[in-house]
Amino acid sequence: MKTSQLIISAAITGLLSMSASGLAGAQESAPKKEKCFGIAKAGKNDCGTSQHSCAGNAKADNVPEEWKYVAKGTCEKMGGGLKKPAAAGDKPAAPGYGG
Fold it and tell me: What H or E segment, with its residue span, contains residue 68?
């Protein structure tokens, strides 16, 4: 290999390793989120429920089934819950089957 090819190869390798380590660092620094039930304001929910299928369709404030993503560790401080409340008529999950 010529010296110029070695320099170019080394530069490309260095750039690739820097970008890979930068991506790993960005993922580690991203804030952790969790679903928080019962705190969404009307029209500000993050996903569908048994009543509708889309984000932004909550009809009222603080409906127990409606949820939003919040920073990990803040849900219960905001008055919400981390588990989806059981709807009337829901059967408990069978043992061994997550729910």
Answer: strand 67-71
Q: Do 39 and 59 have their domain in common? A: yes
Q: Could you tell me if residue 93 is inside a domain?
A: no
**Same domain membership, residue 5 and residue 49:** no
- Mean per-residue pLDDT pooled into runs of 10, the chain (99 residues): 76 72 63 93 90 89 94 95 77 49
What is this structure's pTM?
Answer: 0.56
C-alpha to C-alpha distances, 22 to 14, 18, 41, nearest whole angstrom = 12, 6, 36
| 72 shares its domain with 40 | yes
Quick: pLDDT tens for 15-43. 777 766 565 555 667 789 999 999 999 99
Domain count across the chain:
2
Closest CA to 15 of 5, 4, 26, 7: 7
